[in-house]
Amino acid sequence: MGTQRSMFIVSFLFKLFLFLSVHVRAQRTTTNFAFRGFNGNQSKIRIEGAAMIKPDGLLRLTDRKSNVTGTAFYHKPVRLLNRNSTNVTIRSFSTSFVFVIIPSSSSNKGFGFTFTLSPTPYRLNAGSAQYLGVFNKENNGDPRNHVFAVEFDTVQGSRDDNTDRIGNDIGLNYNSRTSDLQEPVVYYNNDDHNKKEDFQLESGNPIQALLEYDGATQMLNVTVYPARLGFKPTKPLISQHVPKLLEIVQEEMYVGFTASTGKGQSSAHYVMGWSFSSGGERPIADVLNLSELPPPPPNKAKKEGLNSQVIVMIVALSAVMLVMLVLLFFFVIAIDPRLGSGYDGGEARLALAVGLLCCHQKPASRPSMRIVLRYLNGEENVPEIDDEWGYSKSSRSEFGSKLVGYVSSTSITRVSSTSRISQ
C-alpha cells in the first residue's frame, strides 16, 4: 500500500513538473506587449542616437536636424525560430504601430524609417540619409548582417544605383538598403478592392501600419493607411511570399525601429503607439485606437510655411498697392508746372477721375474701353467712386483711408459732361 502511494506521488510530481516546464517554456517563447504611449515604459525600450521618449509619451526617433539617426528596440529579444528534428521554421508574428512624420518643409523632407528585425538592439556605425540608421557603406549587402527591414521611404531617387525611383513607398529589405520589393503608398477601398487611395507618409498626420507574418505559409502582409479612417483595409498593400526571411532570422531577434535624416533633407519621425505578438498558431497584435494614444506632435511645417493661395493673395494685393502708389505719384505731379495756367482744369480732373476709375480695386467697378471713350468725349458723367475702394472698413490701412478720402472728395469724384478732352 505504501509502495503504491509512493508511486502515485512520484507520478503526480513528474507530470506536474512536465506541465510546469511546458508552461514556462511557452511563456519564454511567446512575446506580447502593447505601448499606448511610452511614458512609464522607458526601461522596456532601448534607444540610441537622436531617439528619445518625450514627456508627452511620444517616441521620437529623429528630430529635424540634418544627418542624424535614431533607433528604438524592445529591450528583450524575441524567439522567432521553431526547431524540430526535421526542419526549422519562423514563428508567426504580428505587429501594429501608429507613426507620424513631419518634414521641415514641403521641399525639405526625408529620409524615412524602418521596422526592423535585428540580431542586436543597437545598429552601431549605421549611416544616415539613405541608410536609414540600419546599414552603412561597408556592411550594406553583407549576408552576415542578419537584418530584415520594412522600409518607409520618403525620398525619391535616394540611392546611388538609381533603384529607388518612387519615393513615398514601402519596401522589403534583406541585409541591404536596396529593397527587393517596393510599392507606392496606397490603401485599398473595402467596398472596391480595385480602387486605390494614395496618401503621403510625410503628411504630419497619424498613420497606422500593420505587419503580419504567417509561419506556416511564409506569407508577409503589410497594410498602411491613415489612422483617421478608423478601420483597417481588408486588402493589404503588400502580400508577399518571403522564404528568404529564413536566411535572415536567427534563434532570437530584437524588434524595433530605426530612422534617419540627410543633408538638407530632414523630417521628424515619431511613434505614437506600438503593439507586438509572436508565438502560437495565429498571434494578433493588440488594436491601437487613436483615442488611447498620446496626441500627435504639432505639425510645425504647416505653421512655418504659407500655402499657395495665401502667397498668391499677397502678391496680388502687393501689385494693386504698387499701382495705387504709382497713381498717387501721378496725381501729385499730374499737371505739368510748365503749363502754368494754360490748361483746362475740367479736362485735368476728368482725365484723373477716369484713370482712377480704371484702376478701381473692385474689378466689377472698372469701366470698359467703350465707356471710357464716352467719359472722355463728355457723352456720359464719370460716376462717383465709392468710399470703401474695395476694402472693408475694418481692414483699410491708414494709407488706404487717406487715399480713399482724397479720391472721393467732391472736387474730383464726379466730373460733369461739360468737361471733355479737346479734340
Number of domains: 2
Question: Can you count the helices?
Answer: 7
CATH C-level class of the largest domain is Mainly Beta
The run of helices and strands is HEEEEEEEEEEEEEEEEEEHEEHHHHH
Largest sheet: 8 strands, antiparallel
Mean pLDDT metric: 81
In the predicted model, the low-confidence regions spanning at least 5 consecutive residues are 16-27, 158-165, 390-419
Class by helix and strand content? alpha+beta
**What is the molecular shape?**
elongated
Q: What amount of the residues lies in strands?
A: 25-35%
Task: Write down the CATH topology of the largest domain.
Answer: Jelly Rolls
Do you know the CATH architecture of the largest domain?
Answer: Sandwich
Number of strands: 20
Oligomeric description of these chains:
single chain
Task: Estimate the helix proportion, in percent.
Answer: 10-25%
- Alpha-carbon Rg, integer: 36 Å
Terminal-residue CA separation = 142 Å
Question: How is this structure best summarized?
Answer:
This protein has 423 residues and is an alpha+beta fold. The chain contains seven helices and 20 strands.
Describe the protein.
With 423 residues, the protein is of the alpha+beta class. The chain folds into 2 domains: 269 residues, Jelly Rolls (Sandwich), CATH 2.60.120; 100 residues, no CATH class. The protein contains 7 helices and 20 strands. Strands 1, 3, 4, 9, 16, 17, 18 and 20 form an 8-stranded antiparallel β-sheet that branches. The termini are far apart. One of its GO terms (molecular function) is carbohydrate binding.
Overview features:
single chain; 423 residues; alpha+beta; Jelly Rolls; 2 domains; eight-stranded antiparallel beta sheet; 7 helices; 20 strands; elongated
